[in-house]
């Protein structure tokens, strides 16, 4: 799919602020793909669709999780974790994007997972460091993103888990698997 068409398809599904976030994630992902010799076109398309399902009604997302082969344990965790997995299905069903690499990058953009591909790392990181993000510690991650993709993902993963634990939130297993695997990769 051409990127202009993808942007047109995504826009009506997002709020204005979320749409601008999406465009910044796409710019950041394209930049990272250039730095790390990844596929620019896949990075851009995955980024444009990464939050595609963010505003679907919870009941609809719950329905797709139950009906599809997505892991059922998602339903026992915060509904914020559903839009990546559900989005990875909807891009195929609604727009014919049947590229497993792109779909996995959308699927795991919130939590990460063990053994992330380069494209998965690029989208996970771009979502975290896009210029509109103001998380504590994000500037250090932005700097590391120019040097070492895996180390920067590790920092993002660690910051997110630490932040969630301080809030007494539950942590989805893939978030821990991502952190543990990235820790092994950088050492
Ligand atoms: O969709 P975005 O806001 O651009 O960003 P995102 O998809 O990376 O994250 C959505 C939310 O999910 C964010 O508030 C952090 C949260 N999150 C990430 N990992 C976990 C999590 N929440 C819980 N409860 N558990 C996790 O493992
Ligand atoms: Fe998201
Ligand atoms: Fe994220
Ligand atoms: Fe996002």
Name its key features:
single chain, 187 residues, mainly alpha, Hypothetical protein af1432, 0% strand, globular, binds 2'-deoxyguanosine-5'-diphosphate
Q: Approximately what portion of the residues adopt beta-strand conformation?
A: under 5%
CATH class: Mainly Alpha
Helices and strands, in N-to-C order? HHHHHHHHHH
Our count of helices gives 10
Uncertain parts: none
**Mean pLDDT, nearest integer?**
98
Kindly report the name of the CATH homologous superfamily: Hypothetical protein af1432
Largest sheet: none
CATH architecture call: Orthogonal Bundle
Reported by name, the CATH topology is Hypothetical protein af1432
Domain count: 1
Report helical residue fraction: 55-70%
Question: How is this structure best described in words?
Answer:
There is one protein chain. The protein has 187 residues and is mainly alpha-helical. The protein has a single domain (3-186), classed as Hypothetical protein af1432. The chain is 65% helix and 0% strand. The protein has 10 helices and no strands. Helix 9 (149-166) packs across helix 10. The N and C termini lie far apart (39 Å).
